[in-house]
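step 4 of 6: structure.
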Amino acid sequence: MLSNVLNHRYFLWALLALPSIPMTLALLNGATGPQGPPVTEMLLHPTGEFAARFMVIAMVITPMRMLLPNSNFWRWMLKRRRYFGVAAFAYALAHTLLYVLDMGTLGAILGEFLALGIWTGWVAFFIFIPLAATSNDLSLRRMGPKAWKTLQRWVYPAAILTLLHWIFVHNNFGPALVHFVPLAALEAYRIWKNQLTAKGQPA
Amino acid sequence: MIRILCIAAFLTAPLSSANATGRMTCAPVDPANWITQEDLTKKLTSSGWSVRFIKEDGGCWEVYGTDEEGRRLEGYFHPETGEKLLVAQRGRILFRAQD
């Protein structure tokens, strides 16, 4: 009974949507504290953070499967990886819309576009669009698994750009590295493991 | 099951915290001597800024606002004198006071 609930995709969708509830309430409420930032600006940080967080979760699934091949949890996660990717995109979309709303004018947006902390975010967001748009069975079938995978691998440059965006928009390493160091470590493990396997087998 | 609960806890972790960022540090000043937010706002408005909000960070006043050219800026100001110490546009440093 409980496992039926947990395995239902609506359960995962609800879980992925959970962080958006306080954000939506704040947006509807319109105000922050008496001297706080405008709500659009206040929500920039959590929307961006959850976008990055879900992207990182989607990316660690394969290396975690290599690390723990018998884990049922990571097998469970693998089957649901696209949901995490789409959730990352949804939060990134909210993040971008809030930013545009907060800036208010095209001139203001273009005026800071070339800051390292800004263009990296834009490019990462534009990479996310085709990745999210093809995260469905129909696209996978139409493109074929090989081309689909090649396209989805664009998540790696998007991740690097996201990391740069996060670090440089605030000149602050801490929170970004908390998310990206585990990812980098797992990717390093994956490369090492793949090389080991390649060496062990005749070409 | 426990893992799923851990993930749930992770997902609902506090959204963001307003701790010191370490981007700028000001020498401690008696709280009574801090320039008020109102006075700092007035000072900045007269220099062409429009202030969105002010908070304390690293013992300085940290101001989010827009300058006369419409650039969205983040500035650090001396807590006592309101002197401009650091101004950045989305992390790009535009001004840093000489020590």
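step 5 of 6: annotate
 - The two ends of chain B are 56 Å apart (CA to CA).
 - Chain B touches chain A through 28 residues (CB under 8 Å).
step 6 of 6: archive
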